[in-house]
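Moderator note: this is an archived Q&A kept for reference. The question asked for a predicted structure of one protein chain; the sequence and the answer are reproduced below.
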Amino acid sequence: MLITIVPLGFISTVPVAVLLDKPVPLLGAAASFACLLAGSIMTLFAMLHWR
């Protein structure tokens, strides 16, 4: 439940939990894939914003 209320500034909590092999409540086994996908999307948003 912590993922739903944590501000966007703390988006690194899920990747850190995956690296430490801790369970992620809402994502479960898909957490590692979600981290890669979210990182790619955030990079694309940043690139589009700075153009």
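Archived answer notes: The mean pLDDT is 78.
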